[in-house]
Design goal:
Distance between the termini: 47 Å
Strand content: 5-15%
Structural class: alpha/beta
Number of strands: 8
Number of domains: 1
Radius of gyration: 18 Å
Mean pLDDT: 93
Low-confidence stretches: 31-35
Largest sheet: 6 strands, mixed
Shape: globular
Helix content: 40-55%
Length: 273
């Protein structure tokens, strides 16, 4: 199929990249459409597009993460409302993500849930459209929604953490420092981290543009500084070291353009604080 790769990095208003991602997922990945390995709840959110269910028996990161109850928790509703501030991101989320596995911390009681706790999230490399995330912080959960959305999208395109042969010519033995995990990683993993945090940055900006809540704005402002630093570092690493195929060049040029645009907006927001 012919793909306009320069339009694939930035989420498109006409959903071009979402529809192509779904088509490529069917080619490049095992799309688990039967939900045969999921404990179903028949509880849905995001316009009845995403089911709350268990993807695996145990939560990733056990014992630090454990399964949360399969119910429509208030924080899931709040996280969806945060995500709706970025309409294009929300539309893509409900197109690409079909199952959400809720997690929590065994150290936290529900009365201790709230803003500022952050999030822990995960998705599986060989399964499309499914994600895990903690629910104890609604803002952190909203960020996890788009963070794992971005990972799912890249994998569907054929970009995995350890290889992306159709896009990147560098050896997977070439390792570069990642501030996200504080260790050296191959360039496809650097791209995954940078791309997923660019999605988070886009959401942060959208929330800040629509929020009248002072406490939320204070948290978002701090997150903007942290996340823009991660994106900026990753972009510099990618630009300095990537050896790209033709479609890799087209995709990365589109990504660089979008990410730099978001970094400029972030700079203006930070300057106004």
């Amino acid at each position: 199929m012919k793909v306009m790769w320069d339009k694939m990095a930035r989420p498109q208003i006409d959903e071009y990249d979402s529809f192509v991602t779904l088509q490529l997922a069917a080619i490049n990945m095992r799309k688990n459409g039967s939900n045969s390995n999921i404990t179903s709840s028949q509880i849905y959110f995001a316009d009845n597009s995403v089911e709350i269910g268990y993807i695996t028996e145990n939560a990733p990161g056990t014992p630090f993460n454990i399964n949360a109850q399969l119910k429509m928790h208030d924080n899931i509703i709040s996280a969806e409302n945060y995500l709706r501030n970025w309409k294009t991101g929300f539309n893509q989320f409900k197109r690409i993500i079909n199952t959400f596995h809720p997690m929590t911390s065994p150290k936290l009681q529900e009365c201790e849930f709230g803003l500022g706790l952050g999030s822990s999230s995960h998705s599986l490399q060989n399964t499309f459209g499914k994600m895990y995330a903690t629910i104890y912080d609604p803002l952190g959960l909203a960020q996890a929604f788009v963070h794992e959305l971005a990972h799912n999208k890249l994998r569907a395109l054929g970009i995995n953490n350890d290889r992306a042969k159709d896009f990147i010519l560098n050896s997977d033995q070439e390792l570069y420092f990642s501030p996200v995990v504080n260790t050296d990683r191959p360039l496809p993993a650097i791209l995954h981290a940078t791309y997923s945090f660019t999605y988070v940055l886009a959401l942060d900006i959208a929330i800040l543009n629509h929020s009248n809540c002072e406490s939320t704005n204070r948290i978002i402002s701090k997150l903007l500084q942290k996340n823009s630093s991660i994106v900026s570092y990753g972009l510099n690493t990618l630009k300095a070291n990537l050896n790209l195929t033709e479609i890799g060049y087209e995709f990365l040029e589109g990504f660089y353009s979008w990410a730099n645009e978001l970094l400029s907006i972030t700079e203006r927001h930070i300057g106004e604080l």
